[in-house]
């Protein structure tokens, strides 16, 4: 009995299941108590965020620029830092280092730095932080407005914003024009950060009843001077009038111009001026090698073709002065089959096409992009090796921006400027003053492939192409004619018939405004010979007259950009079976004629046609009797690229490679709306083409 009781006691004591269950009960009771206690102690998320924000705010005053090398050295939110890290942005660039702190402190900033130096993040980081600090939500409406001069730049900025801001909760939208204003209007009020072009924004301000910017905290003007140069001065004035006075404004550009200063006066309050490369020896990136060649207008197409043939594995951008040049030469070069894919980007393309081209060129490793100046500013195509300026830029600033599409953020790049003999002196002087180190190089005549005959045969078989060639011709001449700087651009010095021939045109098309100009010299010739015996010279427009034209065109552009209708008087061409482009051409010419008539009192009808003048006939005949061997198109090996470099750099063909001495010594100074709550969803609403908004220079 005693034995049995003992063994029962021991069994009860040692039953492992029972004791485990007992322990488990006790343990889970303890755990749930702990959990409850922790829950009670845990602060709500909003409170934690508030404390973080107040810590950040306290740190703003302690920012020491000299101690900053990484983004994480700035007092930034975890969400922004994570976004930057995920996009592989760790070290700051100079402009970021110098401006982000000031912007965080709430100051207005005017920032200028060389192309490709990282200005986009210099304003996007403060943008994200500004809304984060205020714990902005979609119900707060529009908090930040970022205005870019071109649709492509706006789109690109928006993409960077999406990338670095993806951990934040606010919504971002892209408005760059579209037919369906109503569709955009329904969504615009949910946008916290709006990236846009000025014309479309103003249209919403004018027409979208519920759109307002009363809560706006920050305005960013990217490539500010370009916004003004494109004729958006009135639009900008109107936009700024619609914005609250109490706001922070950031203004960025790669060049400091009068336009930037004007805009700064208009929109900034006691700004901090940050010009990081002010004391730099050169105003262009150190990794950018820059050369120019001088060649006759009629040689330029062959020079370009020869260049492309010897750079088949490179990524290049070629800048032209007008859409119609791009349109024609793009087609012609595709037919010439240089052995590299060619793309075209200009303002007359449908917005969808513009986007496609943009993305295609971003993706390609070797390709050539024919573009107008819509691609000159801000666009960040990766790994561009060459920038060619087929037509002389209107000024040194435009040169800097165009050339800046290569050699971006520590990469190497090369820029080649093609100048006419009449443009060389003035342009090189301007570049010198702007601290741009360009060297003259010569074309290797043995490498020049003459394509004129091929162009002639293309045009003989294709009426549409011929008409494009004619439009290209007129458009180029008009672009020279409208250039402000008459020291560089003199339409009278252009070899008109030779130029027409080089485009494949047997006869130079009639350029009415030119004919009218040419009538004047005849008059002046008599007067001047009688009076002074000085050299006869065709009159060029005075600066005031050119300004008058510009103002007139800007006004017109501004109406178009706001979605204004054409006046009845311009519609006649369509009724006569003239294509829209021809009609525009005619329209432009008529505007110029009208202005000329007013300015100079010309009588257009009595002027002889250019191609009838004896001088032109002679030139035409001379040109035809020249040896014009047509090069056979061969598939060349890529080694040609190196060959071209050798020619250029080592002067192995006994040609001049003279560095501009003066320069060396100089110390002179989608369509549509994209709505993105950054962290959650992407709704891409690509709409149709927004009107015929063009820039004054037919970009
Ligand atoms: N901190 C950084 N670290 C690494 N890459 C950077 C950094 N900042 C910018 N970049 C890269 O440098 C390139 C140029 O930047 P961005 O386009 O902002 O230059 P930008 O100064 O605005 O040029 P532009 O004057 O031509 O508009 C981009 O490819 C960008 O991703």
Automatic annotation (TrEMBL):
Keywords: ATP-binding, Helicase, Hydrolase, Membrane, Nucleotide-binding, RNA-binding, Transmembrane, Transmembrane helix. Gene3D superfamilies: P-loop containing nucleotide triphosphate hydrolases. GO terms for molecular function: ATP binding; hydrolase activity; RNA binding; RNA helicase activity. Residues 22-41 have a biased composition (Basic residues). The chain crosses the membrane at residues 667-687. Residues 1-41, 524-543, 564-611 are annotated as: Disordered. Residues 69-97 form the DEAD-box RNA helicase Q domain. Residues 100-274 form the Helicase ATP-binding domain. InterPro entries: DEAD/DEAH_box_helicase_dom, Helicase_ATP-bd, Helicase_C-like, P-loop_NTPase, RNA-helicase_DEAD-box_CS, RNA_helicase_DEAD_Q_motif, SPB4-like_CTE. It catalyses: ATP + H2O = ADP + phosphate + H(+). Its EC number is 3.6.4.13. Belongs to the DEAD box helicase family. DDX10/DBP4 subfamily. Interacts with AIM2; this interaction promotes AIM2 stability. Interacts with SCNA; this interaction causes DDX10 mislocalization to the nucleoplasm and cytoplasmic inclusions. RNA helicase. This is ATP-dependent RNA helicase. It comes from Phyllostomus discolor (pale spear-nosed bat). The gene is DDX10.
